[in-house]
Design goal:
mainly beta; four-stranded antiparallel sheet; 3 helices; 29% strand
């Protein structure tokens, strides 16, 4: 039977550093190990998680960032930066449960993967690598030592310490939260692309076509989890 994350748990997948939760919560199930804790949506205060993915079989490392959940396929995506890998768990995973897929190997070009985002419209996995200053794009069913279908990297991209990214299907743009700025790319960009100036032109084009800042189209591609939605597109 397919297990789906209940609605009240959808926004409560939290990475946990080893020992941190155990020190803060005597009822923790982590016992000093790294893991992914799932809390009820309205959890508050010193409460125990509903379940925790943790243990040797999970292949989780001591540092985890940028978790993503795919509601269409009921899957949890977790980067393992120390193993240069992306781990894929079923939505109802708990305890010392192995991932159902692992994206890892030299062909993946993953180096310290830090943030994961899912493009549910085009069925793609986007992974930002810290050391490589790159974004690798994989098909949603990628597994093993598989090459990305696209790879954004190089000095022209201005990619640095990427902490988040997201695709807006309405405008076909990719927004990237970089070290000190938001970079915009076309969704299908590949290689060493110089995208910043062209992205600003695209923003102006959307603003002009929308007529005012209240237009849904003008604001839509700023509505990513990585940033707050402004009332108007900035210059």
């Amino acid at each position: 039977m397919r297990f789906r994350i209940p609605q009240q748990e959808l926004s409560t997948l939290l990475p946990v550093e080893p020992g941190l939760e155990a020190r803060r919560n005597s009822r923790s199930q982590l016992s000093g190990r790294a893991g992914v804790a799932v809390f009820v949506r309205m959890a508050n205060g010193n409460v125990a998680p509903e379940r925790v993915i943790t243990g040797a079989a999970t292949k989780l490392s001591r540092t985890v960032h940028g978790i993503a959940y795919d509601p269409d396929h009921d899957l949890i995506y977790v980067p393992n930066p120390l193993a240069d890998a992306v781990l894929v768990f079923r939505g109802g995973a708990s305890g010392d449960e192995a991932p159902i897929r692992v994206i890892q190997g030299p062909s993946t070009r993953l180096v310290v993967p830090h943030a994961i985002s899912l493009d549910l419209t085009h069925h793609e996995i986007l992974v930002a690598s810290l050391s490589n200053r790159a974004i690798a794009v994989f098909p949603w069913d990628a597994n093993g030592n598989v090459a990305p279908v696209r790879y954004i990297s190089g000095p022209k991209t201005r990619l640095g310490h990427v902490v988040g990214l997201g695709v807006d299907s309405a405008t076909d743009l990719l927004a990237v939260a970089n070290s000190e700025e938001i970079l915009m790319f076309n969704r299908t960009d590949n290689g060493d692309v110089e995208q910043w100036e062209r992205s600003r032109d695209r923003i102006r084009e959307l603003r002009t076509s929308s007529g005012n800042c209240r237009s849904t189209r003008a604001r839509s591609f700023w509505q990513f989890p990585i940033i707050c939605t402004p009332t108007c597109i900035p210059e």
